[in-house]
């Protein structure tokens, strides 16, 4: 909280990003919407020691401790939007609850791909979910972050933090433009348990459907909240065991032997 350098840099980046504003590109019948959040993310990456070296490792660590606080404020703002649209949300409650089963799709897609790319036990942490904070905590509790599973979940967590917001914002625009899905369903689909990814997706949808922006934000926030509540249990009881089972099957297909319980490189 006392790192004034970070606060000043954030203020400057916010001002620059808001001055650029929302940029839209027509692509066929659809529109790609670039939001100020995207610019701020890119500018922030450029300030790191790998590029312009304006911030150092300590600055980055200090900034990381404020991420959760910032997201709490964001979710509080979304909470105020849920109330006025509560009747619509209640009508859609079965879809909001059942959508969590859709997140299991990452297991069926991620496990075979990870194994074929050569990952070993890292596959378990990387492919069991989208690897946000609750999933990192789950892997830490079950396997520990020092092992291969911990490296897998942290790798996806970092990639999601850096690229997830960009991907979700653009993906929402493409889905709205090219898929015959209602904007409400896309808003619900954006709530995968990551406030920043959900905000980027809902922001893109709101720019394309400004007359629905409050309802879209409410659906996205409600969906994200439910994903945060039941997503951890889905991962613990369904996704993680399913990931272990699929990993063993695809490991045998690729290597022709049973999968070891630990990463071979870590065996004594």
From TrEMBL:
InterPro entries: DUF3100 (IPR021450). Pfam families: DUF3100. Keywords: Membrane, Transmembrane, Transmembrane helix. The chain crosses the membrane at residues 7-25, 31-52, 64-81, 101-119, 155-179, 185-209, 216-240. The keyword Transmembrane helix applies. Coiled coil: none annotated. This is DUF3100 domain-containing protein. It comes from Clostridium liquoris.
């Amino acid at each position: 909280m006392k790192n004034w350098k970070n606060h000043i840099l954030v203020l400057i980046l916010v001002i620059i990003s808001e001055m650029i504003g929302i940029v839209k590109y027509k692509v066929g019948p659809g529109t790609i919407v670039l939001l100020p959040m995207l610019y701020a993310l890119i500018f922030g990456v450029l300030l790191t020691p790998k590029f312009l070296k304006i911030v150092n490792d300590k600055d980055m660590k200090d900034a990381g401790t404020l991420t959760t606080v910032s997201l709490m404020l964001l979710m509080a703002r979304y909470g105020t939007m849920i109330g006025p649209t509560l009747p619509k949300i209640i009508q859609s409650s079965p879809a909001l609850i059942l959508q969590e089963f859709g997140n299991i799709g990452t297991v069926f897609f991620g496990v075979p791909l990870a194994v074929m790319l050569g990952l070993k036990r890292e596959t378990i942490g990387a492919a069991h979910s989208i690897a946000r904070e609750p999933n990192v905590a789950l892997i830490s509790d079950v396997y520990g972050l020092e092992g291969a599973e911990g490296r897998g979940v942290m790798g996806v967590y970092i990639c999601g933090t850096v690229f997830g917001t960009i991907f979700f914002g653009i993906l929402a625009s493409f889905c709205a433009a090219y898929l015959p899905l209602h904007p409400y369903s896309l808003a619900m689909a954006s709530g995968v348990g990551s406030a920043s990814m959900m905000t980027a997706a809902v922001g893109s949808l709101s720019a394309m459907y400004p007359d629905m922006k409050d309802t879209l934000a409410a659906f996205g926030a409600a969906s994200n909240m439910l994903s945060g509540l039941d997503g951890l249990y889905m991962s613990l009881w369904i996704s993680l065991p399913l990931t272990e089972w699929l990993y063993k099957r695809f490991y045998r297909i690729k290597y022709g032997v049973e999968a070891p319980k630990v990463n071979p490189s870590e065996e004594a």
